[in-house]
Amino acid sequence: MTILVTGATGNAGRQVVGELLALGHDVRALTRNAATARFPAGVEVVEGDLTRPETVPFDGVSGVHLLTNAGDDYAELHTGPELVARAEKAGVRRVTSLWSGSHSPLEDAVTASSLEWTVLRPVDFMSNTLSWAESVRLKGEVREPFAYPRSALVHEGDIGAVAAAVLARGGHGGRTYTLTGPESLSVPEQVAVIGEAIGREITYVEQTEQEARDEMLAAGRSAEVADFVLAWKRDMPAAGYTVVRDVEDVLGRPARSFASWAREHAGAFVSAAGTRR
């Protein structure tokens, strides 16, 4: 069976592609720029844009991994009804919808469809902490607002593994899974875990909310995205810090810890002159 993965070059999308390949399935990877995409041999790379449903090739696929947002600014996707209608017409059987943290027209269209749908709702990705890498390498510090809210952040590899298992094996239709890691950690605790992984003490500096917002705007984030991210961090909903077993229930193994993620990615936080265990 061939499975279409949209957002295939993203942190979770690449994991979905890799997991499907490991399960022995043919993969069609959708990207807005095929020339810059890098995938293993055997992956069918196609160009398309979720904001232009007519460019998304649903023909000949039995399952689809869909995103609820798109574009460089992670804007909410409003073409969900048309995308789902095209998938149904093409004979797609199963679909996963990857939640972006807010109400989504695409999710509404998916759950109202005739498809065998599964909604995946990950909390914070562990890979989001890679945004700290340059500051850790150059200054040995992490600057973030809101020291004490906790997050049950999830390994992006577990997101990919759950999506692949659902699409490849079926049996999860009509379910919504909240994807978390095995523990809930504050930002200072996350910083300490990374420090342990690289064998170096890292200083946590608590920013003001305005400092964090200005930094995101200077990095090219839109005001809408900056305000959404800050609101999520400031007033973390219970789903964001509550550990659940959905990853383990789907995969038959525990969710991976942040410590294991930090060891896997330790090199990103270490300068050429740095030390590492």
From TrEMBL:
A family per Pfam: NmrA
Signal peptide: none
Chain ranges of the NmrA-like domain: 2-95
Highest taxon listed in the record's lineage: Bacteria
InterPro entries: Ergot_Alk_Oxidoreductase, NAD(P)-bd_dom_sf, NmrA-like
Protein name: Nucleotide-diphosphate-sugar epimerase
Organism expressing this protein natively: Lentzea cavernae
